[in-house]
User: What shape does this take?
Amino acid sequence: MGGIGFVVLFSVALALLIPHASAAPLPKDNLTIGIQLSRSCTAMIQANITTTCPSYEDLYLLGLDDSIYGTGDFEYDENGYFHRGPSQYKKIHELYRYDDYHIIVDPPSEIAARTKLIIINPDLPVYIPIGEYVKENHQRVVERDRYVENCHMATITSKNWSDLLADTIYYLRNNCTHTVFETRSVIQDHISSMDFTTSKKYKHDKWVAESIEKCKTTICKEY
Assistant: This one.
């Protein structure tokens, strides 16, 4: 086989291999982070409802976005909503396979599904963290303002997003081991000082118990 024939076969083999390689997920230690608004935040911003949620324009003007060219340009839609437009390339996430230290505001879905993601939500209820369900010494451990799932996806409240956002980016990029924002609190349950022996129920239960004992010996035998 001549040199030309070898080149042709090599090119065909490479063409067959590339689609399989490009379909592979991004490395698990990928440090690119997407910042996304929740549906609730998006709906309120689009409806011009007063909210603590930042808009994508607010985040963009902070200079947070350093996405690679081709990821999609920011634009206003016909209603004045600022967001990221369509990406210029198919399989846009492949741009970040070997260049994986970026922050992407309003990431395309292909990227959001494959990288660490921060979602900003209008509110986040106080919750009991995993492993802290048992109460000890009348104390309970709860967390607020930020919920992190498998050190891959973090939901933060919009009420103090400007403080939480930078810390959460740092937190996710450091395997969720370093943070300067305290989200965990210890709640001391109130301990009642009431003397339960003075309650009506206690007195009634005591009377019933005493009556049963008396009935065994004298009172009930008279009838």
Q: What stands out?
A: The longest strand covers residues 116-121.
